[in-house]
Design a protein that fits this description.
By secondary structure, the chain is α/β, with parallel strands linked by helices. It has 14 helices and 10 strands. It folds into 2 domains: about 240 residues, 3-Layer(aba) Sandwich (Rossmann fold), CATH 3.40.50; about 60 residues.
Amino acid sequence: MSDRSITFLTGAGLSKNWGGFLAHELSAFLISSDELKDNYQVREKLMVTNDYEKVLGEYERYRDGNYYALMEAILSAFKAHDARIASPNPRLSLPKFCRFLDKINQENRPGPTYIFTLNQDLVLERHTQNCDSQIIFPGLHPQPKWASYSQTEFDPDKDRILVSKTPDLHLEKNTTACVKLHGSFDWVQEDQSILIAGREKEGRIKDFPILEAYWKLFEDYLTTRPIDLIVIGYSFRDPHVNKVLYKAAKNDLRLYIIDTTTSDVLCERWMSKVYENLGVLPGKVQSYCPVPLGDIFELHTSLADRSDWLNGILRRLDLGGY
């Protein structure tokens, strides 16, 4: 048992393994959305920038008609995105993926194990149902009904989650907690969608007590102990997230990265002042897997067989007895 905490941070690249949109793909999808059919101004900006968060950021200060039209289109696009990720990945072994999560949870006992995620979809809800370590969403009472998130279509009338303004984040020992830092497209607080997008995310987080509590947990947890951070599909483009990673790196951070972006491109991004200077990170990387999850958790092999990619991660985490 190590004195280090093994923790996850996931982004849109995780959902891509099940056919989900990346940010630039979602931006393109929005151009043909019904909600923007008669709004040439927003469509033009999306066409020029290919960055829906940048466009939303231009409107969010004034909260005009364009802002609300784009937000409505984004929520609708997330519903289409969710339909795409509902089906299994034909190359990915979910039992192997769950076995990996269960092993991490066992190593972290008495835990809990945290999955900090920027995903606002239901990818984890839909695809980790069969893990022994059932994932808990702190502050949600009651918890989401996992059975309804298999391959059924999301129904906003039945499946949306009403979130309290006074959330209780208490967790039992030996649990795996999914902390959705930017909210979720199915969450609402007093009929207001809890989905954070745009360029003012750090400020918008303060509008929702559950997200404010999540953010404090994320910052405190990563910067006050030795952390082995497994990063899956995060682009390192959110400055407020990067500030926390910078602080963690100054403390005692080790990185294990699963992302199809090549390391040179990622390091160039880390050196850019646009997204906060993360030049300290390359030396923190213990394992780098520039491949889809299906290459790591292979479907067409036995449960006991491990890919070379997975073996590399396990060795670096000192989890050889998997």
